[in-house]
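Tutorial, part two.
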Amino acid sequence: MTGPYEFVIDEAHPSLAGHFPGDPIVAGAILLDHVICHVERVFGKQVSTVPVAKFLTPVRPRQTVVVSIKSVAADQVSLNGSVSGTNVFSATLMLEDNV
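Running the prediction step on this input gives:
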């Protein structure tokens, strides 16, 4: 298990204009992108697939997302994201050695 990873999506992020004008939420793909980049950096492996991703509660711009990451096997990690103590997403990532 690694320490918690935190990030914030600024309200100027280009994806927010389409999700949704006047009441923006952060797209799940943007959340996963941040987490995947972090996992690849920390574990020194490439994320090959995301077999499971569940988005439970919308994340708004400027909210701090806290992600806990747990190594389940040499090639698999599970993670949970929360905002202010509320679970907002969970995912399983499969890893492979960088080629």
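Helices lie at 28-43. In part three we will examine how such features are distributed along the chain.
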